[in-house]
Amino acid sequence: MPAPWLKAVQTGVELTVLVQPRASRTKVVGEHDGQLKIQLAAPPVDGEANAALVEFIAKTLGVPRRQVTLVAGDTSRRKRLRVEGVDAAAAEAVISGGP
């Protein structure tokens, strides 16, 4: 059964994310209410948290930053990201299997 926070789209995957800014360090916490919860060290000021989230997802999935797009939730803690060129099964394995 696929993760509820992961959706395969034609060009890659979409991730539904719940962000907790100003954490002690940036990391994936796990699933929370059907969303992938990620703690970010960046503050939610002037788009810093969004930039940090895009950078973290790109690094975690091993894709260039230009392949990660914030689709929805620019000013919300609940966000939707599209990652181009990534297989859904591979994305779930990398994110869920990470420490």
From TrEMBL:
Gene3D superfamilies: YggU-like
HAMAP family given in the database record: UPF0235
Ranges annotated as spanning the membrane: none
The protein, known as: UPF0235 protein COCOR_04940
GO annotations of cellular component type: cytoplasm
Organism: Corallococcus coralloides (strain ATCC 25202 / DSM 2259 / NBRC 100086 / M2) (Myxococcus coralloides)
Family: Belongs to the UPF0235 family.
